[in-house]
Structure formats: structure tokens, C-alpha cells
Write a structure and sequence with these properties.
Layout lengths: L2 H34 L3 E2 L2 E2 L21 H12 L2 H5 L1 H7 L6 H26 L3 H8 L5 H29 L13 E3 L4 E3 L1 H5 L2 H10 L14 H18 L3 H11 L2 H14 L4 H9 L9 H14 L6 H6 L8 H52 L18 H14 L4 H4 L6 H5 L5 H14 L4 H35 L3 H15 L8 H11 L2 H32 L5 H28 L3 E6 L4 E6 L2 H15 L1 H10 L13 E4 L2 E4 L30 E3 L18 E3 L12
Antiparallel strand pairs: 1-2, 3-4, 5-6, 7-8, 9-10
Length: about 725
């Protein structure tokens, strides 16, 4: 072979070697660039790129500053106004101390397993409710949207209650308290007590007339109540400022908003124990009535309370847990928060009935004094003989035991004429049996009790500041359940979305600060959340257990937690919880069907409440609330089942979630040689400097191969460098 031929061959060999090296180096650089590149949907950069554990790319999603901050946020969300004014009422109504047993059983069967499920999916997928359920099953993605709608409905009226609490808080810096006595009305000739107040009570009058200035029916709007409008605006400003930076701003506030209510409850409990009658209230509270436990209604109401106490289905639990590290022990968190919630309810019940016991004792003493004066009057008139009254009893300074003795004697002697005397037995149990809940407990019964406290303004300030903090803690989770999923899905700025959300909610919330606003609060409370949330949580359970796969989910939990969860949860999620939830849903529908839809209206002339049915338009609103809350579920399912929205259009239907990353669903895999990551153009993917792409996805390979360790494994072939060049020439 000629020498020149050898030189040429060697040069050709060197060129080939260098070309191969260049290709290999280009392949490495392209793969490195692929690994470190950020995923883009609809051409927007996803700054909070969510990557699998162990990736070199740093997760930029916000995170809690500490585990304590996270626990306090979850506790603040789950522990709300219902723990103070709903649980004590249910406990008294459904068997006293015996009610705690069905509540604990249902907490273990429904509460903790479902709370653990929501914490797990949020922490594993690291998205809000919309992203989580798109990840589990795109066709069930409407679950997340339904959660957002329900959250917004609840936020609309829940913040009104915070506004009411702010109003009472602002009025508590007076001595005496403004609701201590009935107001006097003056005319030209004389002064007299306000008739509406005289026929009811000072606290009842102040609530309905001074605070709400309530109309007589829901059809009489009466215009805006400007005092409550200002308070509602203040409440929304507080929520907006606290949530404008997400957990970075609200996370600092939870140290106060979540812990302060416990300080107040403990102070109230200590103070109440030092008052007369508090022990009577607690004894009445926890005296078990076992026969009531067998009634189905008790179990239904206990299940409903467990369900709402933990905030299941709202999306706030998922949103908060999505900011956790993947290896966080969310099982411990679920058990801890659930039992903190339970013991908070018990503590609140102790406080409420200790205070109500004191109030009942004060009212009972007044009753005995008034009836003793009536007995002395009957003795002077000769209607009752002095001989039947024991000589050791002094009617002008009579004790409770002596009064009951005299009452029984008169009742036996004057059997036929006794009813005409109009004497009252003055039993403290009768006063304690007057079950009150909700606003009736907080703004009427409890405020009346505090008027009898020494230094009553101080205790009133503390109580309503506690209600404000309880409400804010729940509002933080509710707003997070709205904002986080939308930010994750649509990539809008959190600050702008939060301001728009709060401003719009305030504008809509003006219907709740009309004179008839209290009736709309009742309507929303009865219809906007109960059924929709039950349906949402049932679908969540079905999606995880039967769509995603319970065995696969248990493996994910083992991989995430580092240990296998107790097998107990497997059976709860797959069998028991769905059946219990379905039973609860059916029972709620039946109960709603049997109960006539209506509200308790305050009738000014009678100075009492009267049950009224909703007008036709009111019924339409009630039905609309339920339908609108559930509508996203079938709408999203139909859109994605029948591909009604073009996947390539970049619309919502084309977005899916794979292993915590946002990807576009491919339209035509066979023809897509240029895009390695669906949703990115070929110009977005780093590539060697050749006129054509040198990488092609392996034919027949799936869109996304997931390796056992959870990372992506995608195969590539070098091709199309020079279409006509034989492989041997390369």
C-alpha cells in the first residue's frame, strides 16, 4: 500500500474517532442538560420544579421552617370554631360522657385513616389538591376543583363569623359590657325598658338588634349593616396579609393563632372552677346516658363531627403537607393532630359547661329569690297557710335545698290549685338542659355568663380574641386549599391570586352583612359543604384504593416513610372507610330530605325565633350550592373521557401529573421525534450543533418509563445524523 494511502487512512480513522468522541460528548452534555433543565408547560417556566428524591436538581418549592410550624398550621386548620361551639352541644345532646365512645371509635375508623391518606398524597406528590388528583387519575381531576369550590363557599361565610367576633371584641373594652343590661327608651312622659329586650334577654337583644340589626325574613334584605361590613373588610384584610406570601407569611403567624386559644381555654377553665356552680355544669356534662348511644342518629352526628373537625376534603390538609420533605413521618403527624383535635374538643367542652354551670347557678338563684317572694306574697294573702312552712326556713334568705323542700310541700298540699300559683321548681338541671350551639352559644349564652364574671371586660376581650384566632387558623388552611392548587396548576403569582381571591370574596360576602345576612350564613352552612365534601372524600378514597391501586399506594408509603404502615390502614382504606362514608352520605341525604329546608328567623314583635321555610328562590340557591360544588367532577371526567378538549391546545385537559412533575400529554408519539419532554419544543432541549436532531426516542417505548427507584429511565437511539450514511461508514 502506498505511503500516502496509509496517511490518508490514519487521518480518516482519526476523523472518525474524533467524530465519535464529539457525539459521545454531545450525548453526555445533552443528557446533563436534560437532567438539569426545568420542565415547561405552555411555554412557562415551572420554578418550583418537583423532582424525585436523590436528584441533583434542588427543589425550589417553599418548605416549612420547622416541624413545629407545620404541626401548628395543621392544628390551627383542624381546630376551629366547631370545637368550641359544636362539639359541646353534641356531647350534651347525645349522651354526655357516653358520646365520647362513638366519637373515638369513628375517629379511629374514619378520621385518622382518611387524614393520613390526605397527608400522604400531598407529601408524596407535592402539589395542591388539583395536582394530586390529576396525578392519581386525570379523569378524576375534578375532585381537586370541587375541593377548591367548596373551600371558597366555606371561606365566604366563615370569615363573616370572624367579622362578628371582631365586632364583639371591639365592644368589649367597656365597663359594664354593652350587653349587660337592657337599654332604656325615653319618650315625652316616662322612661321604660326596650320591649323587645324585656321579652327576651339583654344578650339576645344585643345580638339580634344591636349587632346584626336582623330582619324578619330572608326575603327582607334591609340593606347593608355598615358596622358588620367594616368588620368583614377588616377580617379579609387580616386573612389577605397573612396569606399573601403563602406559608412564608402565615407560617409565622400560626405560632400565635394556634397557641393563643389554648392559653385562653386553660385560663377560662381555671377561672370557671373558682366560680359557684361550675362543678354542677361539668357533672351534668359527663353524666353518661348509655341508652342514647344505641340510637343511629348519635353515630351519624359523631361521624359528621369527626369528618368536619379534621378538615377532610377541603384541600387544606393536602396543601399544607405538600410543603413537607418527602421523608417526613406523616403517619405520626396524622395521629398527633387527630388526638390534639380530640383533646381540644374535650377541653373546650369542660370550659363551656363549667361556665354554663356557673351561669345556670346565677339564674337559678334569681329564680329562687323571685319565687320565694311570690310564696311570701301568697302567705300574706292567705292563699297558702303558714302552718305548712317548716319553722326553721327563712323565706327572705332561703337556700336552694330549703326552697326545694318548700316547693315540694306546697305542691303536695295544693294539688289542684298548684298550677294557678305559677311557681317554678328552679332546678339547675333544667337550665343546663337548654342545649345551645353555634352563634347562640358564643354570642348569647357565653356572653351572658361573662357578664357575671368579676372583671368581665377582660374575659370578654380574651374570649372573642380567642374566637378570632380559631377562625383565622381555619381560614389559613381554607385559603391555602384554594390558592396552592391554582398556583401549582396555572402558574400564576401567589400574591396576585391571593389579593384577587380575598377581594372577590369580600364583594360576594356583602350578602352576609345585610340585615338578612345571618339567614344566608345558615343556608351556606347547611348546604354548601356537607354533601359535596362527603362526595369528594368518597371519591378520594376510591381514587387511591381502586384507581391508583391500594397495593401500589402502600408501596409508595413504604418508600416514602422508610417503613411499611400498619396493615390496619390497608383494610380501613379498602373496605371499612368507603362503606362508612357511603353510609354517612346516605344518612345525610335522608336526614336532609326528612328535615324541611328552612331557617330560624328572629321575629321582632314576638322577640323570639320562629322557623320559616325558604322561598322558591331560596330553594334554588340551596340546590345550586350543592350542584356547583360537585359539578367539576363530572365535567372534568367527561372532558377527559371523550377528549372534548384538544390536548395540543395547551388547555387544562392536556395537563397531567407524573411522579410529581407537570408534563403535557402526547398527541402523536409516533410523529414526535423532536420533543423529548412533552410540552417543550425542540429549541428548548439542548442539542448538538447539527442541522437535524441526533436523538430519537426508542420506537414502541412508553411515554415515561419509571425505574424502580422512582427516577425516569428513557432510552434513546442515535439516528438521522446523516440519513443516507450506512452504519459501517460511521
Amino acid at each position: 500500500m502506498p505511503k500516502n494511502s496509509k496517511v490518508v487512512k490514519r487521518e480518516l480513522d482519526d476523523d472518525v474517532t474524533e467524530s465519535v468522541k464529539d457525539l459521545l460528548s454531545n450525548e453526555d452534555s445533552a443528557e446533563d442538560a436534560f437532567k438539569t433543565s426545568e420542565l415547561i408547560v405552555d411555554g412557562q417556566e415551572e420554578k418550583d420544579t418537583d423532582v424525585e428524591e436523590g436528584s441533583e436538581v434542588e427543589d425550589e418549592r417553599p418548605a416549612w421552617n420547622s416541624k413545629l410550624q407545620y404541626i401548628l398550621a395543621q392544628v390551627g386548620f383542624s381546630v376551629g370554631l366547631g370545637n368550641v361551639w359544636r362539639f359541646p352541644y353534641l356531647c350534651q345532646k347525645n349522651g354526655g360522657g357516653a358520646y365520647l365512645l362513638p366519637y373515638l371509635i369513628l375517629l379511629m375508623v374514619i378520621g385518622i385513616p382518611l387524614f393520613f391518606l390526605e397527608l400522604s398524597v400531598g407529601q408524596r406528590i407535592r402539589r395542591g389538591s388539583i395536582g394530586v388528583w390529576n396525578y392519581i387519575s386525570p379523569k378524576l381531576g375534578g375532585i381537586g376543583f370541587a375541593s377548591c369550590v367548596v373551600c371558597y363557599f366555606v371561606a365566604l361565610y366563615y370569615n363573616v363569623i370572624i367579622g362578628w367576633s371582631l365586632f364583639y371584641f371591639s365592644q368589649s373594652f367597656q365597663q359594664p359590657l354593652p350587653w349587660d343590661q337592657c337599654p332604656l327608651v325615653k319618650n315625652a312622659s316616662h322612661t321604660f325598658v326596650e320591649p323587645e329586650c324585656e321579652r327576651s334577654s339583654a344578650t339576645t337583644y344585643y345580638w339580634y338588634r344591636e349587632a346584626l340589626n336582623i330582619s324578619s325574613s330572608i326575603s327582607e334584605s334591609g340593606g347593608l349593616n355598615w358596622k358588620m361590613t367594616i368588620c368583614l373588610l377588616a377580617a379579609w384584610v387580616m386573612v389577605c396579609l397573612a396569606m399573601i406570601k403563602g406559608i412564608q407569611s402565615s407560617g409565622k403567624i400560626v405560632y400565635f393563632s394556634s397557641l393563643f386559644p389554648y392559653v385562653v381555654l386553660i385560663c377560662f377553665l381555671i377561672r370557671a372552677f373558682l366560680l359557684n356552680g361550675s362543678v354542677d355544669g361539668i357533672r351534668h356534662m359527663f353524666t353518661p346516658r348509655l341508652e342514647i348511644m344505641l340510637e343511629p342518629k348519635v353515630w351519624r352526628e359523631a361521624a359528621t363531627q369527626v369528618f368536619f373537625a379534621l378538615g377532610l376534603g377541603f384541600g387544606g390538609v393536602i396543601a399544607f403537607s405538600s410543603y413537607n420533605k418527602r421523608d417526613n413521618n406523616c403517619h405520626f403527624d396524622a395521629v398527633l393532630v387527630s388526638f390534639i383535635n380530640f383533646f381540644t374538643s374535650v377541653l373546650a367542652t369542660l370550659v363551656v359547661f363549667a361556665v354554663l354551670g356557673f351561669k345556670a347557678n346565677v339564674i337559678n338563684e334569681k329564680c329562687i329569690t323571685q319565687n320565694s317572694e311570690m310564696i311570701m306574697k301568697f302567705l300574706k294573702m292567705g292563699n297558702i297557710s303558714e302552718d305548712i312552712i317548716p319553722h326553721h326556713i327563712n323565706l327572705s334568705a332561703i337556700t336552694t335545698e330549703d326552697y326545694h323542700l318548700v316547693y315540694d310541700i306546697i305542691q303536695k298540699v295544693k294539688e289542684e290549685e298548684f298550677s294557678a300559683l305559677h311557681l317554678n321548681s328552679c332546678q339547675i338541671e333544667e337550665e343546663l338542659n337548654k342545649a345551645v350551639q353555634g352563634t347562640g352559644l358564643a354570642f348569647i349564652a357565653f356572653t351572658e355568663a361573662m357578664t357575671h364574671f368579676p372583671a368581665s371586660p377582660f374575659w370578654s376581650v380574651m374570649f372573642f380574641l380567642m374566637l378570632v384566632n380559631l377562625g383565622l387558623g381555619s381560614m389559613f388552611g381554607t385559603i391555602e386549599g384554594i390558592v396552592t392548587p391554582i398556583v401549582d396548576t396555572f402558574k400564576v403569582r401567589k400574591e396576585i391570586l391571593t389579593v384577587i381571591c380575598c377581594l372577590l370574596a369580600f364583594c360576594i360576602g356583602l350578602i352576609f352583612v345585610q340585615r338578612s345576612g345571618n339567614y344566608f350564613v345558615t343556608m351556606f352552612d347547611d348546604y354548601s359543604a356537607t354533601l359535596p365534601l362527603l362526595i369528594v372524600v368518597i371519591l378520594e378514597n376510591i381514587a387511591v384504593c381502586f384507581v391508583y391501586g391500594i397495593d401500589k399506594f402502600m408501596e409508595d408509603l413504604k418508600d416514602m416513610l422508610g417503613f411499611a404502615p400498619c396493615r390496619y390502614y390497608y383494610y380501613m382504606w379498602k373496605y371499612i372507610s368507603p362503606l362508612m362514608l357511603l353510609s354517612l352520605l346516605i344518612a345525610s341525604i335522608v336526614n336532609m330530605g326528612l328535615s324541611p329546608p328552612g331557617y330560624n328567623a328572629w321575629i321582632e314583635n314576638k322577640a323570639s325565633e320562629e322557623f320559616l321555610s325558604y322561598p322558591a328562590w331560596g330553594m334554588a340557591v340551596c340546590i345550586s350550592l350543592v350542584v356547583l360544588a360537585i359539578l367539576p367532577v363530572p365535567v372534568v371526567f367527561i372532558i377527559r373521557r371523550f377528549n372534548l378538549v384538544d390536548d395540543s391546545s395547551g388547555n387544562l385537559a392536556s395537563v397531567t401529573y407524573k411522579r410529581g412533575r407537570v408534563l403535557k400529554e402526547p398527541v402523536n408519539l409516533e410523529g414526535d421525534d423532536t420533543s423529548l419532554i412533552h410540552g417543550k419544543t425542540s429549541t428548548d432541549v439542548p442539542s448538538p450543533n447539527f442541522g437535524k436532531n441526533i436523538y430519537r426516542k426508542q420506537s414502541g417505548s412508553p411515554t415515561l418509563d419509571t425505574a424502580p427507584n422512582g427516577r425516569y429511565g428513557i432510552g434513546y437511539l442515535m439516528a438521522d445524523i446523516m440519513p443516507d450514511m450506512p452504519e459501517s461508514d460511521l
